[in-house]
């Protein structure tokens, strides 16, 4: 909450920020040289690991009923470090009858994600679409109250588990009017959007609160400008908004435009994060996928990219074959382009061709040494790398200071204690170093390595 008020945002760019720049420069040097150490080969071979090394996430929409499909979960668990429930957190799913909340399918996705070190984007708290029948037939102050209660209940249920919420989805009209979309929620009064953000902020002060929409990618479009003006107004009046989501469903009617980067950077300049939240592109042209990722990487406040499904057959627009994996789960050309873009135009390092022939001599249960190095630091988060010596199969315990939260990891298999503050990282064959991103939430203490054990 405090992080969001205007005064605080300003102080982020004051004297503290100058120190941060120096630290970030030093950390960047450290991170850059660390990237060339042997043993970090798997960094840069999956979308999530490559994005994490750039301080970003790479996510996908997930459907709970596909978590039993092993071809699906194999790709999900290997490639992605963020998930968005595709339908399971929508109003009709979470409050099917008024006042009776149902979280089973959403909880299943959240637990699948978090137990594997993936972060979760919540989607969505207030929307004109996918409303349960009882809400569709409501209006006026009763609807306003029901909407606010929904926001409060759902954001409270997932407090601490969702890093960013699409608080309000698709509230603006298409076309050249720049007007709000007509809906039962809009008819409760023009202030319904800010009321929803305030309720979400009260329920989960640490989650990033986003406005999310489609056809807001082209900087010259009236809808884009209308959302921009709303966000500028919210920032100037202290309405708690932290981020803007760009769905980025690109197709022949609504194509990618090279001014997308201008859109992302213009919103970011208002003092909000930007996220690509539902990316799919008709026909999956590799060049367009590459351009979207490069645009995000070019904007410091672009936190990450989420594609709207894994295989083409998982897409809500399957006939457009718009995703990164084909129906058999094979990587398409667009996948290679995205990975290369995340790796800065370079192809990933091949795994070592001459693996050591002698088995590790470290006895199980023996000790090892784990050294933590500071990595890149951003306005709200920082990376750390831990290098292990004295064991090849290792278990390292790292603690962060609340309200810090680890939001993503790479090159290891993490598990967590019940508080979520203590991470036990086990080697996963990726070498002798692992990394993680910590959301500072106002606390910049360095994480502490508590132990290193050979296993
Ligand atoms: C879509 C889902 O992918 C479909 O399964 C569902 O039938 C309809 O909704 N914008 C959004 C998403 O914000 O929630 C939509 O998801 C796609 C458009």
Describe the structure in your own words.
It is built from 13 helices and 17 strands. The chain has 455 residues and is an alpha/beta fold. α4 links the parallel β1 and β2. α8 packs parallel to α9, α11 runs parallel beside α12 and α12 runs parallel beside α13. 45% of the residues are buried. (3S,4R)-3-hydroxy-2-oxopiperidin-4-yl beta-D-xylopyranoside (XIL) binds next to loops.
Question: How would you describe this structure in keywords?
Answer:
455 residues, alpha/beta, eight-stranded parallel beta barrel, four-stranded antiparallel beta sheet, 13 helices, 17 strands, 23% strand, binds (3S,4R)-3-hydroxy-2-oxopiperidin-4-yl beta-D-xylopyranoside
Topology of this structure?
Elements lengths: L5 H7 L2 H21 L11 H7 L3 E6 L7 H10 L2 E4 L5 H4 L9 H11 L4 E9 L5 H4 L3 H18 L6 E6 L22 H12 L4 E6 L8 H16 L5 E4 L2 E2 L9 H9 L4 E9 L4 H13 L3 E6 L25 H10 L26 E9 L3 E9 L4 E6 L5 E6 L2 E4 L5 E5 L6 E7 L8 E7 L1
Parallel strand pairs: 1-2, 1-9, 2-3, 3-4, 4-5, 5-6, 6-8, 7-8, 8-9
Antiparallel strand pairs: 10-11, 11-16, 12-15, 12-17, 13-16, 14-15
Helix pairs in contact: 8-9, 11-12, 12-13
The structure holds (3S,4R)-3-hydroxy-2-oxopiperidin-4-yl beta-D-xylopyranoside (XIL).
Summary?
With 455 residues, this protein is an alpha/beta fold.
How much is the radius of gyration in Å? 22 Å
State the order of secondary-structure elements, H for helix, E for strand. Answer: HHHEHEHHEHHEHEHEEHEHEHEEEEEEEE
Number of helices: 13
The major β-sheet equals: 8 strands, parallel, barrel
Shape: globular
Strand content: 15-25%
Number of strands: 17
Q: Whole-Å distance between the termini? A: 42 Å
List of distinct ligands in this structure:
(3S,4R)-3-hydroxy-2-oxopiperidin-4-yl beta-D-xylopyranoside
| Contiguous runs where pLDDT drops below 50 for at least 5 residues | 1-43, 347-361
Class by alpha and beta content:
alpha/beta
Which sequence of strands runs across the widest sheet? 1-2-3-4-5-6-8-9
User: Please, what is the average pLDDT?
Assistant: 88
Question: What percentage of residues falls in helices of 4 or more residues?
Answer: 25-40%
In quaternary terms, these chains amount to single chain
